[in-house]
Amino acid sequence: MISYPLPVLDAADAAAAEAALAEGAVRLLSGTVVDPAGVTRAKHVPAARAMAFHTAGMGASPSWNVFCIDNALAFRPGFGVVGDLRLRADLAALRVLGDGLAWAPAEMFDQDGAPAPVCTRGLLRRTQAELERHGVTALVGAELEFVVPERAGGPWNAYGLGPVLDVEPVVLDLVAACAAAGLPLEQVHAESGAGQLELSLPPADPLAAADGVVLARLLACRVARRHGLTVSFSPLPFADGAGNGAHQHLSLFRDGVPLLSGGAGPHGLTPEGEAAIGGIVAGLPDLLGVLAGSVLSAHRLQPGHWSGAHACWGLENREAAVRLCAATPGNPHGASVEVKCIDPSANPYLAIAALLGLAADGVSRRAALPPEATVDPASLTGADAPARLPVDQAAALAALDASPLAERLLGTAIRTCLSAVRHHELDTYGEDDVAVLAERFRFTWSS
Ligand code: GLU
Ligand code: MG
Fold first, then answer.
1. For a Cys staple, 310 with which of 211, 377, 408, 436, CB 3.0–4.6 Å?
2. How far is the CA of 307 from the centre of ligand 1 (A)?
């Protein structure tokens, strides 16, 4: 069972962390947080200061939570130039990355040691602990799509062999870097867009899954840099290219028994599994501002792009926002739902906390399972047609701002800061040409 808030390591675990740093000849420890705009920010200490980073933490202005994608500050009461937060590195999640560098995710606390409500990793830790307290556990698998712009110009076969061999030295180094960092990889392939690759991570504990996304991005960007390449985790790196998704696969269990298979419902769903999917589908419009809320997100989230632009579910339906992957011999991890509308501008801690929260909400109110979309939802008309998710950033933010559910799942501090930074984007760039936007923010979500 996960505990909340972040516990201080006991003496044995602290000694193990120190030993790992020494054995790995670590010189610098980077501790990261992901802000509400989805940007990864960090403090760094010499290895000898690792325990101080874990216990007292390193300072950060509360305004870190209202940094915008253009580095403007969308100040809000309590999130301004006065005050201090402590970033505490979670050394239980420490990874030695090689060549003197180590990484750990960090959480935000106030100076007296109380967890800061604005901390997104803290929110996920709390959401997961709450779910587990009710006997439900979750596993989350992540898909990371990204574009190597230097490879976007040439010939490209979607899912082709050649595109991967073209960047084979990078891919092999990335596989090695993941293995060295203890990050298991599920698979790697060339995606449909020119220059677009995908890494997938196997199901993991929710907090570890979100950390895995941060670490995988760091490793992808670090390895690419060493080959003189750059990597874009923007929802839409090029106006005329494919969008990057950040799909999450969620599976749920009660007392260890799967909720998405082995039942009498459609495709083996149990009643609680049906209710969980009902909760997710019903809540996606409210939470889209969390999952795909940036100024570029709606340009990606279009029908016909397998990005899940419709609020519906369906077995292996790649146009539904929620794709059910049933438990078959071809799916050894067991049944999951893939939430496809998420893009990489979403903070992964917030995105996973939102999904867990929606599933728990569905289960607690026994939400009805909506009708299954068995065809491309865009082809349906009339009463059967599922709704589009909010079609632009303004609509996604209006839904988020008006949602009591979002307030309950995120808390006031996170919702305030998220809304602040996304409204800055809307107000400043909402009318801009998509090609200008794509170029301007191509590397904003890279590490
Ligand atoms: N690139 C698509 C997206 O933006 C997803 C393609 C796929 O299904 O893998 O979400
Ligand atoms: Mg993909």
1. 377
2. 5
